Amino acid sequence: MSELKKNTPPLKPMALINFKKTDVELGKIIGNFWKLTWNKENPAIDPKTKYLLSLANAVGAGRYRQATRELVKAYAIGLTVAELDELFSLFVWNQGAGHFASEIGPSPLFAAYQLIKTSENEGQSREETARVLLENFGEKNPSVATQQT
């Protein structure tokens, strides 16, 4: 799959198109802001950590679509199951068991996390798991996509 190039995260920032559709100048401003945040030449924070921070912030704001996209990207560039296990434990700690059970557990984010754990436990390669993850939780999934079809 062409989107799964080594060290290149899948899922492009398609939501940026909506800003341009609203106002061309706004699209340029937001596009430049995205470049400043995500495409710096020498960033102080490594990309995997940025995805983890963005994922956690999205969960805190109840934006599971964004959180799922960040998980897919982070896994594609090296996020481990152990890191995910700790992150999901933090969600229970910070947001409570009830919130986790009713909101996070049935979300596409949790389904993607479980797909990763199951795939790795079954011995699938990271590349194969990332391909299936992108297939199931990419632009074709209405719970994750940012563009209307």
Describe the structure in your own words.
The mean pLDDT is 89. Helix 3 runs antiparallel to helix 4, helix 5 crosses helix 6 (97-104) and helix 7 (108-121) runs antiparallel to helix 8. Helices cover 66% and strands 0% of the residues. It is an all-alpha fold. It is built from eight helices and no strands.
Outline the secondary-structure elements.
Layout: H1 16-22, H2 24-38, H3 47-60, H4 64-76, H5 81-95, H6 97-104, H7 108-121, H8 126-137
Helix pairs in contact: 1-2, 3-4, 4-7, 4-8, 5-6, 7-8
Work out the helix count. 8
The domain count comes to 2
Q: Approximately how much helix is present in the residues?
A: 55-70%
Structural class: mainly alpha
Q: Identify low-pLDDT runs.
A: none
Give the ordered list of helices and strands.
Answer: HHHHHHHH
**Shape designation:** globular
Mean pLDDT: 89
- Could you give a short account of the major beta sheet? none
Indicate the proportion of strand residues: under 5%
Q: Kindly provide the radius of gyration, computed on alpha-carbon positions and rounded to a whole number of angstroms.
A: 16 Å
What is the straight-line distance between the termini? Answer: 21 Å
What's the total count of β strands? 0
